[in-house]
Amino acid sequence: MKTEKHDAIVLSSSDEKTAQKEFVDYFKSCPLPDDEILPNLGLYLTSKNLSRILFFYEIYKKILHTHGIIVEFGVRWGQTLSIMSALRGIFEPFNRHRKIVGFDTFEGFKGMGKEDGELCECKDGSFSVSSAYEKYLDKILSLQESLNPISHLKKYELVKGTASETIPTYLKKHPETIVSLAVFDFDIYAPTKIALEAIRPHLFKGSILVFDELCDDIFPGETNALQETLGLSNIRI
Ligand SMILES: C[S@@+](CC[C@H](N)C(=O)[O-])C[C@H]1O[C@@H](n2cnc3c(N)ncnc32)[C@H](O)[C@@H]1O
């Protein structure tokens, strides 16, 4: 099933979608005073959405004893980056090396091919975002950072553009990069393979790699890319 806009996929049932729509209507007509909205955001959490936050909480704990940056390949609306930033504020507010870097076209998929199968019915441009969204996200991440210690040091970066160009360019500019955690969520084969190949020399024994679509028949490209680069028998999943 596709979303109303931006040609993204959702796997919710129609009953779930109806309930979610009602939830959104209530959210939009929120009667809370402005200064009480953010502290009460939990009011609008569903088990599904909370589970995503808890998942990244568990993942973040795994990198606490390691050194290096967090990178997300496929940012879209940027929720993961924001959650990571909040977790850094909780767990290691003074770790200036724990940069959080996100790569995205901010114009949707780029580079779909035969390795991505046909089930998803997506095309280049699917999973796009609202126009100039990266500017809005940048501001959100900047506000997020301003509410944590050592906020005068910018510790996040949004890299807009096609992965095949932006990832190698970023790593050339930052040869000191060590990747502690990489979240793969491009969904599709070509940019995932490029990202894996590019970061490989920046990984260490113990780097954590997160894949959103592993063993996923709707988006087989991510598994194909992992198989061809690191090889499934060489890694613990
Ligand atoms: C499923 S969305 C990411 C969702 C996000 N991680 C989240 O948790 O909500 C996939 C993203 O990958 C991006 N993308 C796909 N192909 C790309 C490419 N070749 N270069 C850069 N970004 C790409 C799309 O623009 C899209 O925002």
Give a verbal description of the structure:
- This protein is of the alpha/beta class and 237 residues long.
- It has 2 domains: 1-44, no CATH class; 50-234, 3-Layer(aba) Sandwich (Rossmann fold).
- The chain contains 7 helices and 5 strands; from the N terminus they run ααβαβαβαβαβα.
- The chain has a 5-stranded parallel β-sheet, sandwiched between helices.
- Helix 6 (189-199) packs parallel to helix 7 (221-229).
- The longest helix has 17 residues, at 47-63.
- The mean pLDDT is 96.
Question: Could you give a short description of this structure?
Answer:
The protein has 237 residues and is an alpha/beta fold.
Structural topology:
Elements: H1 14-28, H2 47-63, E1 69-73, H3 79-91, E2 100-104, H4 133-146, E3 156-160, H5 163-173, E4 179-184, H6 189-199, E5 208-211, H7 221-229
Parallel strand pairs: 1-2, 1-4, 2-3, 4-5
This protein binds S-adenosylmethionine (SAM).
The site of S-adenosylmethionine has 21 residues, from helix 3 and strand 2.
Percentage beta strand: 5-15%
Low-confidence spans: none
Per CATH, which architecture of the largest domain? 3-Layer(aba) Sandwich
Strand count, sense and barrel status of the largest sheet are: 5 strands, parallel
Derived structural class: alpha/beta
Descriptive terms for the model:
237 residues; Rossmann fold; 5-stranded parallel beta sheet; 7 helices; 5 strands; 38% helix; binds S-adenosylmethionine
